């Protein structure tokens, strides 16, 4: 296990280095003149010169690269052109809001995707299976911003069931004191269940939007791996010796289908880290995605690059966690044996 | 949008593999030793539905603009008209005909989806076959780069690329294509690795064919199956990605008639009840993406 872990971590560090190199290439080398790109179309020459001087864009590329590289690895993500604040600091303040949204969205996607996937696999070829498949394709082709607007129109504008897209809590409401950064958890820890309820009301529409879309890949993966497990020889034997169908479905089927499902949940979580820009913008959710959105509007490439690097690093960490849990659950992997299925 | 990572949907090859294996089940109806094949619309209904929707969109994209009014015409006496027989999709805050804009946008969005899918497939398979067939340090280097690019969600990669190189339609096409290329590299390479061990490759070598010729004329065509399926899916995701970027103000900008731009322009109207300015255009994005998903999903499923 130790050796496997070491090797896996080494690859991850290499990947993170690669990410930083690629992001440097995209935001510093590609634009031609990095200062003009950041100053925006309406800036005068003095503004461009000021930015050039402040960010060291006059230095030779290799010098810029070394500065940038050492900066990122010592926790210096640069300074935002828009706010003049420290990018890493600004991102970390906003991260809990994004993580809370991600947590509940993935939870919802899992609660919808896994039962539907099991059902579809158990009733393969019936109308239930067909319905689940259409649902999955529908989720794969859904535009988040369209679904979000649809929900806002019906459940806010028409029915007034849920609050409008403004923030995490009603205007003027004091957020709970920071413990985990998740408002629902923090309010519950303080015993303020009215606030918990409010926080959930504001979470509802963005979570439904994301959860619906993210349920599709989980459903597909559960169905496919369930079918594979149910077609295996040990299940055929279990059937032959008269093990009850329910037991076969959950003990032999689902337990063996769990590994790919964990991967699917991980991938979906990783996708969330980047794909939430649209939902956070739409629902005015004060997370990292909305920060990235604001950065884009004024060509604040320094802030945007910080966001991208953070997403990349979180994604890599997530993959390590998935791989390690995989190896922990399935000894064939850490022992380096070939997995036959 | 947005919802655009092949990774999160599981790629075509995985589904194919699984389906092929489950095809070993005992359920295939066999009569007199021969499998009875039901008609295509029974076996692959989604494929047929997908092609039908896509055909309508293509007809709309090609001929539609000839029949509608100029989508750029501003008419301040006709703002925010709800959908009616005169204005099928209503009018927006400038009095522009939403239907006319949506039809013009179909031409742009559908073309971008198809161009991105084909470009990503061509570039990705070319790199994939070089990587897979020749191996060695070229393969090693290309795979490491691919891994790093895949460490970003595709949408974020496209976003930062466009932000860096500037807003324009060609730039968006390039950026979104780059984001999808790695999936084709992986897919083709995996196929090529299996394919190059087959005997016909040895035969081709004995017949005196050069390495490049074997790689591109013999191995590549036999390794393209899953890439074509993937291309259908990518066309749908590309439409979602481009529209999602436009929704955020990245890439294609107002006043261009593009579905994502239209949703972005119409989004504030939702709060005041004029749902038609945004929701029709958004619905077309979803419908177009769905047509490609139906096609890709059904093509990628082996027959049971």
Task: List descriptors.
heterodimer, A: 341 residues, mainly alpha, MetI-like fold, B: mainly alpha, 2 domains, elongated
Detailed description of the structure:
The complex is a heterodimer of chains A (341) and B (304). Chain A has a domain at 98-286: MetI-like (MetI-like fold). In chain A, 75% of the residues lie in helices and 0% in strands. Chain A contains 14 helices and no strands. The radius of gyration of chain A is 24 Å and the shape is globular. Chain A starts with a helix and ends in a 7-residue tail after the last helix. The mean pLDDT of chain A is 83. With 304 residues, chain B is mainly α. Chain B has two domains: 6-37, no CATH class; 42-299, MetI-like fold. Chain B has helices at residues 6-9, 12-22, 40-43, 45-67, 98-134, 136-150, 154-165, 169-195, 199-206, 211-222, 225-247, 259-270, 276-300, and strands spanning 30-31, 34-35. In chain B, strand 1 (30-31) and strand 2 form a beta hairpin. In chain B, helix 5 (98-134) crosses helix 10 (211-222) and helix 6 packs across helix 8 (169-195). At the A-B interface, helix 1, helix 6, helix 7, helix 9 and helix 11 of A face helix 1, helix 2, helix 6, helix 7 and helix 11 of B.
